[in-house]
Specification:
Helix content of chain A: 10-25%
Oligomer: heterodimer
Strand order of the largest sheet of chain B: 1-6
Structural class of chain A: alpha+beta
Structural class of chain B: alpha+beta
CATH superfamily of chain B: Di-copper center containing domain from catechol oxidase
Shape of chain B: globular
Strand content of chain B: 5-15%
Largest sheet of chain B: 2 strands, parallel
Largest interface: A-B, 71 and 86 residues
Radius of gyration of chain A: 20 Å
Strand content of chain A: 25-35%
Order of helices and strands of chain B: EHEEHHHEEHHHHE
Number of helices of chain A: 2
Largest sheet of chain A: 4 strands, antiparallel
CATH topology of chain B: di-copper center containing domain from catechol oxidase
Order of helices and strands of chain A: HEEEEEEEHE
Strand order of the largest sheet of chain A: 5-6-7-8
Distance between the termini of chain A: 28 Å
Helix content of chain B: 25-40%
Chain lengths: 129, 319
């Protein structure tokens, strides 16, 4: 019921433990942007010309910096890795969604309600993993 | 060989899925939060939660590192084979703890519920007390309900913070139906994806045409979220962050996504996986023979995920 097969797939606990042992040295890499402005890079080629667009974002909520990675697609949609299922036309909308999506990180100050059931105003363009 | 069944029509699949999920959630093989670079005091991580961590890390690995759009599991061609790989490994874990090598992960045919009026969709049998339970913060009904007084109730023990860092927590599961997307996808939405003639297209990202990007849910841009993406967003709560495998509904969604891909593969007009092995190095991590990011096993390639007939089949490919 948890046979090794010719691709090395296994449900055996020992296999899982061994794999984590092999990978753990690199687990701290690149999952967090860190302090400072967030720079995004968009590249494209148009009629043989290479285009590079760099954009810097410096975001704070109640004075506290937002330091995770933010990206911009070539169609202008802004996304943030902590809520990878969502894309926004506006970085401000994105940051508003962070407040809704991470209730443990933001004290409820009682000024306005999060969108309720069935409220599709501002439906973001969404994607996920 | 496992048979993957519709969770709403197979009571056996439903019962086994709940039992297996709860068993894996309570199983600790030894790896700790410290081993997985998660801050705070070290504590053991359950087998279930190892998959939460793997998903988050994959999502935060740019492929290749020189760009910041495609990652090791999403926003590019590898989206479908990587999640097939993930679910295959989870299925092996279920088979082990259930003692049933024929167990297959169940799927939720969400487009069937999407044909109901939006206001009726939260009333699907899927969210009943004998299936996944309902919504709430925390969820208080069904097998994944939270009861602070009961150590064996379903607890979210690892999630991400607003800075996109994994962290240890101890709380109940959260869902908020239809808060950020008003309705589930419909059959016609699925058919628009399966009608695509290419698996994927340049620029191999969220702006591409092709089957993968429509099924992942980034296109078309206008209007509401789409397909796989919309299902995450419609469920809301813990299905929003990169720690979304915390919710057992995660795998029901992805199993259906995989089923739609399997249906496309079985069709007469099934396009080949692209990009090819000879494509630009700028597509590292997404080409057919590139190694996919693995944490809980050795790595595999997208090519090795194209034929799954040795491992599982679906009870129906009608999408």
């Amino acid at each position: 019921m948890h046979d090794d097969d010719d691709l090395g797939l296994s449900g055996d606990p020992e296999s899982v433990i061994e794999s984590i042992g092999r990978e753990k040295a690199g687990l701290g890499e690149s999952v967090h942007h860190g302090p400072g402005a967030i720079e995004t890079v968009r590249e494209s080629t148009y009629r043989g010309h290479h285009i590079v667009v760099r954009t810097s974002y410096e975001i704070s909520i109640d004075g506290q910096p937002v330091e995770g990675h933010l990206g911009v697609s070539n169609d202008g949609q802004v996304h943030y890795h902590a809520i990878p299922n969502l894309g926004f036309a506006s970085a401000v909308e994105l940051v508003e969604k962070l407040i809704d999506a991470f209730p443990d990180d933001f004290e409820d100050v009682g000024d306005g309600e999060p969108p309720g059931d069935g409220d599709d105003s501002g439906d973001p363009h969404a994607g996920h993993g | 060989m496992g048979v993957r069944r519709n969770i709403l029509t197979s009571s056996q699949a439903r019962t086994q899925y709940v039992e297996g999920a709860r068993t894996l959630k309570a199983e600790f093989l030894g790896p700790t939060t410290s081993d997985l670079a998660i801050g705070g005091p070290a504590r053991q991580v359950s087998t279930w939660d190892l998959f939460v961590v793997w998903h988050h890390i994959a999502m935060n690995r740019f492929t290749p590192p020189s760009q910041s759009d495609r990652n090791a599991a999403h926003r590019g061609p590898v989206f479908l084979p990587w999640h097939r790989f993930m679910m295959l490994l989870l299925e092996l874990q279920f088979q082990r703890v259930l003692g049933d090598r024929d167990f297959g992960l169940p799927y939720w045919d969400w487009a069937a519920d999407g044909e109901r009026a939006p206001g009726q969709q939260p009333g699907s049998a899927l969210w009943g007390p004998d299936a996944m339970g309902g919504q709430g913060s925390p969820v208080t009904t069904g097998p994944f309900a939270f009861d602070a007084a009961r150590p064996d109730s379903w607890r979210v023990l690892i999630d991400v913070d607003v800075q996109n860092r994994l962290r240890s927590v101890d709380r109940g599961l959260r869902r908020s139906f239809a808060t950020s997307a008003s309705a589930l996808p419909r059959r016609s939405d699925v058919q628009r994806a399966t009608g695509q003639t290419a698996y994927d297209e340049s620029p191999w990202s969220t702006t591409s045409g092709g089957f993968r990007n429509l099924l992942e849910g980034w296109q078309p841009v206008a209007g509401a979220p789409h397909l796989h993406n919309r299902v995450h967003v419609w469920i809301g709560g813990d299905m929003l962050p990169s720690s979304s495998p915390n919710d057992p509904a995660f795998y029901l969604n992805h199993c259906n996504v995989d089923r739609i891909w399997a249906a496309k593969q079985a069709s007469a007009a099934s396009p080949p996986y692209v990009p090819t092995a000879g494509a630009s190095a700028a597509l590292l991590g997404h080409r057919i023979d590139d190694q996919m990011y693995a944490l809980l096993s050795s790595s595999l390639t997208p090519r090795q995920m194209l034929d799954v007939s040795r491992w599982y089949t679906y009870d129906s490919l009608a999408v």
